[in-house]
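pinning this so it doesn't scroll away 📌
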Amino acid sequence: MQIRREKRARLLADGREPYPVRVGRTHSLADVRGRWGHLEAGEETQDVVTVTGRVVFVRNTGKLCFATLQDGFSPDRASERLQVMLSLAEVGETELAAWKADVDLGDHVAVTGRVIVSRRGELSVMASEWRMASKALRPMPNLHSEMSEEARVRQRYADMTVRSDAREMVRTRAAITRSIRETLHADGYLEIETPVLQLIHGGAAARPFGTHLNAFDIPMTLRIALELFLKRAMVGGADRVYEMGRIFRNEGIDSSHAPEFTMLEAYQSWGDQKSIAALTQKIIVDVADQLGSRRVQVGEHTIDLDGEWTWLSVYPAVSEAVGEEITPDTPMTRLVEIAAKHDLEVDPKWSDGKLVIELFELLVEPGLVQPTFVCDYPAIAQPLARRSDRDPRLIEAWDLIIAGMERATGFSELIDPVIQREVLVEQSLAAAAGDPEAMQLDEDFLNALEFGAPPMGGMGLGVDRLVMLFTGVGIRETILFPLLKPL
């Protein structure tokens, strides 16, 4: 770094700007490949271009120097690389010496010259002049040695300079979020934005991050869900709404959980759990089509996103897993015995419904490889979902499990303000009793419901987990700049 700083100082002393505003680029590296890529080995043109890029390879050999430039990437193209050549005959002794003295790996440079193909068949620009575009003061990672995962995540910008997979992840995620928006827009959904800072956290069972608003001198939280404000918009007359935004939950961090992540939530008037499930399936299938295949490899499993997706009820699934019939009437004592048999530690605070959910997650969920809408949950699973008309102890809600992991959840929404108040009062009492994940009583949301909301279906989809599905990596790799423990 000291040597690079000395080079920067020398450039300034010699009147050569190390960070100019403009360098006069005429063609991207991709443009050059697209227009002159057909040339044969040894063929030369008189076409002069000015190209720019980061120096990712350099070989200085006497009177002829070679370098490889790498440019940026965009939604419609990956990073391109192109060779540049500097010869004594073309640039002169002074400029060739300056190149050898001043240019390091990682620098951005501008090179002007003729488009040619080397004798070895490499499309190149034979320089007539060059200019420093941005002097790098830190060395690049070694192109030929793997950065550790920790180093890659901590210095994603460095990772992206040397690893095409890192750059491709950014493009893939952008393609996925663009596809989601295009699907929703085509289906008549209105994208809106809701507050990140909230007086009362709600919409999910999760522990919030606390903060403080100095202007009002009041405590606030970062949102744990998008739901309650999107439903307010539905009360106001929006027919179909969605938001794709950051969610913050002050909970554990592992390969599938991050404290800051991206959630899609969508609500459709006059819909229910079935219609919102159809939308969710279409969103995911459209993403698969955007990426090129409806068959996705996850470890040793091939996930087939085509055709009908399975619906699976919780209680029959648990019954099959434990070898006896389990229903909402099964006594808690028997459920505890079954849990002990399967080495599931039971929290004394759990209800029978909670214990059934835990048994399902332990015994059934890991084996659900193909897309499965898990439905007929006990009511405790989703306090904001509508109770089932068949059995009020169950709810009209589903979790979408693909490759053993929850990817989305959906409901027939609870719109009865009286029942909703009862549910939130129960939640607030649990919060007062010390449950850090219980929701608080949100009077403004209840006021909104009392104006009358249309029947609706609603869904939430973890965008990061969707990216994980299509890329086969952990959540830290899908988030460009994840939160990390300080060094």
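📌 and the second one:
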Amino acid sequence: MPKYAKLERRIPRPADLKPFLALKSQRGLDRAERRVASAYTIDDLRRIAKRRTPSGPFHYVDGGAEEEVSMQRAREAFRDLEFRPRILRDVHAVDTTTTVLDEASALPFGFGPTGGTRMMHSAGERAVLRAAARAGIPYALSSVGTTSIADFAAEAPAARRWFQTYLLKDRETSLRMIAQAKERGYEALVVTVDVPVSGNRLRDLKYGMSYPPQLTVKTFLDASYRVEWWSNLLTTEPYTFTYEEPGVSRSELQVSGFNDNTTTFDDLAWIRDAWDGPLVIKGIQTLEDARRAADAGAAGIVLSNHGGRQLDRTAPPLLLLPAAVREVGADTEIILDSGVRTGADVVAAIALGARFVLVGRAYLYGLMAGGEAGVDRAVQILRSEVERTMQLLGVASVAELTPDQVRLLSRGALVPVE
């Protein structure tokens, strides 16, 4: 008698094979949608984007300053945190809505401002705005974007539109843009304050990144098999930058209008005089500056190290968040960016006291991977991660997220969250 029983076999019937032959239908999807449908994480979109985008624009998005320590630390802060889930909670329906700057957002994250967006994909900011409008989230147009203030507003009049600027040397350029944003119904002004000079982005130097991209032997060889990117570039309108003014040369504005390293907190006064809506100060990295920005009347501050693209070896904004909430959370809304790559990151930041989170690289990877369809896919990925993380934590709404559900780790030691 055999030691083990043998399998009882039979000839398979056609009905038995049917479940194994079912193919996932992609009927009705265009090429870009089919391409990004295979992405299940933002890192998947990044890998697709790297294949499809010339090295200059891709590494402009992907890279940071100097040795990229700030960029890596910001990401590691999210990787190292601990969630503390609650069990046996009713989480069959999850409410991801929240408010930021006293207006509703369907998700606890929005799209932060990014420069030169049409270099990533010729659909540029307009495609991103349409995706943001469908998702019901705000999107900030950068003053060094590649779409005009008027065209951006006309693309999706009902969308939540913010405008981002710098404290420029040429004050008239700032005032002109602020007036245009006000006239076109932008709801908030985001002033980025961590760029007295541009960071030393070595990848841009290595890969020959320029505005607009220059066709050298190196860039030609690099882009020779990325036909769609070059076809889009050459068959659509040439880039113009958001800050440009008809009749004023681009080079003149670049020299006279940016990187003013003489500005102080006093300069916020003329910004405040020109803008009567919500004012958000972006680039806060210390408690002292958080307090000064709140005292200056900021409706919101963005804890940010510019995605690791300015000063290297800075502290991750996530680690500053709990103390900033205690210091100024009652006086101003705290928004966080830098290092955010997943919906779980968003949930952790909200639990630790952030009112809202801004993502940049995440949607740009989607844009490079598949244009507007890729941005939609990035939103889908982040939304599903937010919902799933909330359910696994045992919370059914954004309002239920609290600091005791997260513990931060810093250099291997637990950081208490009070």
